[in-house]
Design goal:
Pfam families: SPDY. InterPro entries: DUF317_SPDY. The protein has one domain. About 25% of the residues lie in helices and about 30% in strands. It has five helices and 14 strands. The strands form two sheets. Strands 3-4-5-6-7-12-11-10-9-8 form a ten-stranded antiparallel sheet, covered by helices on one side. Strand 6 and strand 7 form a beta hairpin. Helix 1 runs parallel beside helix 2 and helix 2 packs antiparallel against helix 4. The longest helix is centred in the last third of the chain and has 27 residues.
């Protein structure tokens, strides 16, 4: 295990031991506030009941994000109502899905959809994932073999995406997406799944796995708070910019109406 010392803090604060974990797909669930606080800062409503599971609702009430650790197998459920582009859809992600990977999908729910056609495979190929096809099924596997993304096309025409990660002890998580799940959301998740950067976990929350690499880091509470606040501030700024753009958008000018039988001026 490697040791890193973080520099640059003022006096009076005690450092806390955390760990950088790689690959992120095997880092464990993490703090759900990484997801919920970003959504809240983006204008989502917190519909959670006291001491109950997390439940966040989009401003237009068409999408809900829930996390329930009190049931088996537990985990994340993201549900979208039917709209003009997609039918009703659901994404289910296991309890040990790292919050950074979940946030790839939930953060994308707060942003305007890109005009470019989504490509789920592109982020994986950029990180040298191995790909193979078997008839109508297509699979990409991470270079270390711990994570995968699969596309299944059934004979009845139903398309299904499935992803997950697992170590040699069989510990990990899976996620699946119903056929109508918007592809730009699946692509956003695959980008975080393939992200090679490590993620941080506090001491005592690092999974026991022979297939992860860890670096010990000394972090002060103010530094952790600053990182968290930067993410929230970015969400608020983006939300403010979108709302401002909508409010300043020029309205169509009403056309002049000439009453029936009225005189028209010739030029």
């Amino acid at each position: 295990m490697k040791k890193k010392q973080w520099q640059g803090w003022g006096p009076g604060e005690q450092t806390e031991q955390h760990y950088l974990v790689q690959p992120r797909a095997l880092a464990g669930g993490g703090d759900v506030r990484h997801v919920s606080e970003f959504l809240r800062a983006s204008g989502w409503r917190d519909k959670s009941k006291t001491n109950g599971p997390l439940l966040m609702e989009s401003p237009d009430r068409t999408v809900r994000v829930a996390y329930d650790p009190y049931i088996l197998p537990g985990g994340w459920t993201i549900h979208g109502q039917a709209d003009g582009l997609n039918g009703e859809w659901t994404a289910n992600l296991g309890r040990q899905t790292p919050v950074e990977i979940v946030a790839g999908m939930t953060d994308a729910l707060t942003r305007p959809r890109s005009a470019h056609a989504p490509n789920v495979w592109a982020p994986l190929q950029e990180q040298n994932w191995h790909t193979r096809s078997e008839g109508e099924h297509y699979t990409a596997t991470s270079p270390d073999g711990t994570a995968w993304m699969q596309y299944h096309h059934s004979p009845d025409g139903t398309a299904m995406w499935w992803t997950g990660a697992k170590d040699q002890q069989g510990i990990g998580w899976t996620a699946n997406f119903t056929p109508n799940t918007p592809m730009h959301l699946v692509q956003a998740l695959s980008a975080e799944l393939a992200n090679p950067d490590p993620v941080m976990r506090p001491r005592g929350r690092v999974p026991h796995s022979a297939q992860i690499r860890t670096w010990s880091v000394s972090v002060k509470p103010s530094q952790l708070s600053a990182w968290q606040q930067a993410r929230i501030t970015a969400a608020r700024a983006a939300t403010w910019a979108r709302n401002s753009a909508r409010s300043t958008r020029p309205r169509a000018t009403a056309r002049t109406h000439t009453p029936a039988g009225g005189a028209r001026t010739r030029r």
